[in-house]
Amino acid sequence: MISEELLSLLVCPMGKAPLRQEDQALVCTRCGLRFAVKDDIPNMLVEEAELPEGCHSLSELACVKAGDAKVDPS
After folding, report:
1. Which residues have a Cβ under 8 Å from the Cβ of 48 and sit 6 or more positions away?
2. What pLDDT, in 10s, does the model give residues 39-48?
3. Do the beta carbons of residue 37 and residue 43 sit within 8 Å?
4. Tens digit of pLDDT for each residue in 18-73?
5. What is the C-alpha end-to-end distance of the chain, expressed in Å?
6. Cα gap 66→29, rounded to integer Å
């Protein structure tokens, strides 16, 4: 379980939106990216995050479509 203090400091690396805790994951409150938490350590790597349902690539995320985040084309 991530402490409330740590959770208040963490943001989504894509659009910088706050995160909420769901089971063993941290979920972006804006784009829905899910970051796994293992042994109380969040994996905040975008490349390893789970895309929200119905989203097939990072370029389809709400924060990218709004221009608040960019996707590295490589």
Report:
1. 35, 36
2. 989 999 999 9
3. yes
4. 999 998 999 999 999 999 999 989 999 999 999 999 999 999 999 999 999 988 87
5. 34
6. 15
Helix (H, G, I), strand (E, B) or coil at 6: helix
CA 12, CA 62: separation in Å to the nearest integer? 12
Q: Report whether 49 contacts 33 (CB < 8 A).
A: yes
Count the Cβ atoms, other than its own, within 10 Å of residue 58.
19
Question: What's the pLDDT at 33?
Answer: 97
Tokens of 35: 């970051």
pTM here is 0.90
The DSSP-derived string for 16-44 is: --BEEEETTEEEETTT--EEEEETTEE--
What are the residues whose beta carbons fall under 8 Å from the beta carbon of 44, sequence distance 6 or more? 10, 13, 26, 35
